[in-house]
Amino acid sequence: MDSSKEKKSIENIISEINNEDSTVAISVRKCFPQINLLIKKVFEILKKDGRLFYIGAGTSGRLGILDASECPPTFGVSDGIVIGIIAGGDNAIRKAVEFAEDSTTQGWEDLQKFKINSNDVVIGIAASGATPYVVSTILECNSKGIATGCITCNENSPLAKAAQFPITAIVGPEFVTGSTRMKAGTAQKLILNMISTSAMIQLGHVLGNKMIDMKLSNDKLIERAEGILMEELSISLPKAKNLIKKHNNVRTAIK
Fold it and tell me: What pTM was estimated for this model as a whole?
């Protein structure tokens, strides 16, 4: 990869970035067997009323929080079912907290605030697979009988060796060296989508390809809910509107 990025035109830069990004889905596809095993474990835990925790630092932590925060509105589950934790706490979501990722004790302390137990599953997210905050937490979870998985992009990493259900997506060098918010971040996002969506489908929160348990928290979602009812029940828009107004829930309205 040509390293003289500063001499390139914008057109060339975005073309090269896009070319690199196009390889990410292929890298993720190679991980399907690993992803499948982890999702099966997540489903097993959630089906027994356990919880799914994502834990990471920097971009990885933010991606976990993003996926967790989308589960309640999309699938109608409690915000205590899928939980994202980032090194440095909520302040680190917007701004980097120096040295937060270097702690080997804080991750476990952060999990204890949620009364983590052996009925839960914890997925560590770290592109390098070496982040002390994440690796130490996964090792501690293992010692406490808590199921663990990970998403990393570095082969034979400490995190992959520590997790019971590791996923390693080898995406190769970044367009900007070390900027793991790029291909590594994209790979992590794709895998997180697969984990949460597959688990929620298996739990019955989707009908066909429709989000029947979504929270109707804005006009766009209400309109979508009305459209679902029109299609599923073969009814007019006024009737769909009345059902949504009455039930404020797609699943209940269909029944």
Answer: 0.93
